[in-house]
Amino acid sequence: MILFDETIRQQKKDGTPFVKVITDAGIIPGIKVDTGAKDMAGHPGEKITEGLDGLRDRLAEYFQMGARFAKWRAVIAIGAGIPAGVASRPTRTRWPATPRCARKPDWSPSSNRKCSWTATIP
User: N or C: which end of the chain has fewer CB within 10 A?
Assistant: First the structure.
């Protein structure tokens, strides 16, 4: 189950962490680590996904909280003249440098014109 930052921090009324509840039910908790897509300056129609700053520390914290995989979503527009090649470059160069991740890249566009890249926290 993919959780948001807010959700992974939640607890039941008795103080039991939500992650423990779903783990006890046999569900593997994961965490969404990107912070959203923003318009890319100087490249109309293109987006850049943010959230790499501080990712190393966030991954360590999420692991301590019980997350066992991470999800990063990058929105890449495909059309005439786009992507320009610069939109995904920051993510592709900085994400692999993040420690403690077993990366499985898949940069091929799917039918809904999005790309995915899955990482698992060991």
Answer: C
pLDDT in tens, 22-48: 999 999 999 999 988 888 877 777 888
For residues 84 and 43, the answer to whether their CB atoms sit within 8 Å is yes
Long-range contacts at 87-92 (CB < 8 A, ≥ 24 apart): 87/40, 87/43, 87/46, 87/47, 87/48, 88/115, 90/48, 90/52, 91/48, 91/49, 91/52
pTM of this prediction exceeds 0.70: no
